[in-house]
Each structure stands twice: as structure tokens, then as C-alpha cells.
Design brief:
Elements: E1 9-12, H1 18-29, E2 34-39, H2 42-54, E3 65-69, H3 75-88, E4 94-97, H4 110-138, E5 145-149, H5 156-159, H6 174-194, E6 200-205, E7 209-210, E8 220-221, H7 222-234, H8 238-241, E9 245-247
Parallel strand pairs: 1-2, 1-4, 2-3, 4-5, 5-6, 6-9, 7-8
């Protein structure tokens, strides 16, 4: 049985912590959206929701957020999540591909490290888009979007920028950088292919945020980075947004 929801339905992958959780909080607390908080395990998703509900500074209505289990490294998990959303809600208004990793498991070989990062940051995002696209197409929401969370580190120009604190000499991370460069291309191609259907595909670069992902290092907190993602998902004319990059630092697509 399909549950009716009067608010646009937003799915966020990797939303049980860090920037993803802050994004879920900002969207859900606005009162304008119903957020599906995606996590690799139901226990982590439930715990994250309890954390949101306990926050008195930015109160979230329990009816505005729901857990969903989705492991983006597993095609069967992605398919099950898409089926759940389809069976439960019938459609999806906004998809935010936030889940990502910076490196593989400790002790990984070079090939294993690259494979692990690409499996999540690129292949996972590609399969999630493919699985949920029918639900986006089924939505009557006038501002349907796919937001891919990228990084300025994925730009070739930044990697080679002399004197930059984020160039490859200061911070190599070849597997992470190349995965985000690939995600940028995935964003650009899907933006072109889906533009005529009125589905805006947008990239968001939240910047260097202090989260467990960065080991607590960064110039911004998670909520600041999340605001960039929220802007990419909700602001601007959708006809002009497709294929664009939303960022605070002036980062732009290109070589």
C-alpha cells in the first residue's frame, strides 16, 4: 500500500553521520520535506534519527524523517531500497548521493584501495541513480533533482595548482581525487541526458568540513557544508541548475 505524503520526498545516502546527517537535519527541520535517512544498517539509521529528534536547537518532527537501509556497494541492497520506496511512496522528488569514502580498508593493496573507493564513490552513485530514476520520473514534483556530493579535490586544476594547500603535493589522495573527478563526469553526462525530462542533475562541493571523514580536520563544521548541499537540492531555477556546481569556495567544473 502506497503511503500518501504531502511533502516532497528526499532520499539521502550515507546520512547517518557527518555532513549527510546535518543535511537530513536541515531539510527535515525546515518542515518542507520528508527525508529518507539512508544508512548501510537499520540500527545506524534508527540511531541517527533518534539523534535528530533529541536535538532541541533544530527540532525535527518525527513524521518528517524515516530510516531506509541502503548499502551503495551492494546492487541487491540498492534494488531493495528502490523497491521499498516505490512500494511505500510511489515516487521520489530529490535524490542526494552523499555516501562516500576516502580510502579502502587498512592494509589494502594499491589496487584494492582504488577499487574500494571507486566502488562507493563512483559505481555506487551510478547504480543508485539508475535504480531510483524511474521513481524520479514518476514524481509530479516540479523541481526534481539529483545532487551528487563531490569535492574540489576532484578537479585536475586544483591538483596542479601551485601554492594551494589542497594541491596534490600537499594532499595526494589519488584514489579519492580520481573518484570525484569520475563522479563529476557522471554528473555532467546525466545532467545533459535528463535535462529535457526536467530532472536537474547538480553537483555540490561542501568544502573541507570537520567530520570523522576528515579526522576532525577542516575549516567548516558539518552544518556549514550541509547548507551547500541543501542549496543544491532546493534553491535556484531548475532549468538553469542542471549541470552546475554549488560550492562556497568558488570551485568550478573544468580542468
Amino acid at each position: 500500500m502506497i503511503m500518501a505524503t504531502s511533502k516532497p520526498l528526499v532520499l539521502i545516502t550515507g546520512a547517518n553521520q557527518g555532513i549527510g546527517l546535518a543535511t537530513a537535519q536541515q531539510l527535515a527541520s525546515s518542515g518542507k520535506y520528508h527525508v529518507l535517512l539512508g544508512s548501510r544498517s537499520s540500527s545506524k539509521a534508527d540511531a541517527a534519527i533518534q539523534q535528530l529528534l533529541a536535538d532541541t536547537q533544530y527540532p525535527v518532527d518525527a513524521a518528517a524523517v524515516s530510516p531506509i537501509t541502503i548499502d551503495i556497494t551492494s546492487d541487491s541492497s540498492i534494488a531493495a531500497a528502490a523497491k521499498f520506496v516505490g512500494d511505500t511512496y510511489g515516487s521520489l522528488a530529490v535524490l542526494i548521493n552523499n555516501a562516500g569514502i576516502s580510502s579502502g580498508p587498512a592494509g589494502s593493496s594499491l589496487r584494492e584501495n582504488f577499487r574500494a573507493v571507486f566502488e562507493t564513490n563512483v559505481f555506487g552513485a551510478a547504480v543508485v541513480i539508475d535504480a531510483f530514476l524511474p521513481l524520479l520520473r514518476a514524481s509530479s514534483y516540479p523541481d526534481r533533482r539529483i545532487v551528487n556530493v563531490t569535492s574540489g579535490l576532484g578537479q585536475i586544476g586544483m591538483a596542479g595548482a601551485r601554492g594551494s594547500p589542497f594541491n596534490a603535493r600537499a594532499y595526494a589522495a589519488p584514489e579519492y581525487r580520481s573518484s570525484k573527478a569520475a563522479l563529476n563526469m557522471l554528473t555532467a553526462v546525466n545532467a545533459v541526458l535528463l535535462a529535457d525530462e526536467g530532472i536537474a542533475v547538480v553537483a555540490a562541493a561542501p568544502g573541507f568540513c570537520r567530520t570523522s571523514f576528515t579526522g576532525g580536520q577542516g575549516s567548516k563544521d558539518a552544518s556549514e557544508g550541509a547548507r551547500v548541499i541543501v542549496r543544491a537540492a532546493t534553491e535556484g531555477d531548475p532549468k538553469e541548475m542542471y549541470g552546475t556546481l554549488v560550492a562556497d569556495e568558488g570551485t568550478q567544473f573544468g580542468w
